């Protein structure tokens, strides 16, 4: 299964890197392919290293202005002209999406896939990996949107909130029928 992971390229402490490394190990060990932003720095590097070390494949989609930070030894690397094309290419190569900790870029990518699901433009499973409670506030906001009628479909049809790597991967494998 090709699993697109949206996440930060920042250098982060162990409370974020340890769970990311565990998810990457499970992804690679399961024979899955990581589809990610292609960066070889920060948390993106941690995940790519973990997947590759565990035997998984890497498909990177970088963007022209970040090409200098792209991983040299990915199985495949595509350079998009801009961020919009990058998102489209990432999603086109994916069977499922995992949203890990990140900043505004990750939030932009997350809302894009959720909008596509909301409008029936994709049915791929989406997991929000809530490492160290990072997305507790967003989860609360999504529930408020649902409760107050801002979501035309149930929140559970849009995204699965996973508290750990094992739950995230199990949901994806179940949701796609791929083991």
Helix and strand arrangement:
Layout: E1 2-6, H1 14-29, E2 33-36, H2 42-53, E3 57-63, E4 76-80, H3 83-92, E5 96-99, H4 104-118, E6 126-129, H5 136-147, H6 155-158, E7 160-162, H7 165-176
Describe this structure as you would to a colleague:
The protein has 179 residues and is an alpha/beta fold. The protein contains seven helices and seven strands, in the order βαβαββαβαβααβα. Helix 1 packs parallel to helix 2 and helix 1 runs parallel beside helix 7. A seven-stranded parallel beta sheet has the order 4-3-2-1-5-6-7, with helices on both faces. The model has no long low-confidence stretch (mean pLDDT 95).
State the major sheet: 7 strands, parallel
Number of helices: 7
Share in helix:
40-55%
User: C-alpha Rg, in Å?
Assistant: 15 Å
Distance between the termini: 8 Å
- Tell me the strand order in the biggest sheet: 4-3-2-1-5-6-7
Low-confidence stretches: none
Strand content: 15-25%
Average residue pLDDT: 95
Summary tags:
seven-stranded parallel sheet, 7 helices, 18% strand, 45% helix, alpha/beta, 7 strands
Summarize the structure.
With 179 residues, this protein is of the alpha/beta class. It has seven helices and seven strands. A seven-stranded parallel sheet has the order 4-3-2-1-5-6-7, with helices on both faces.
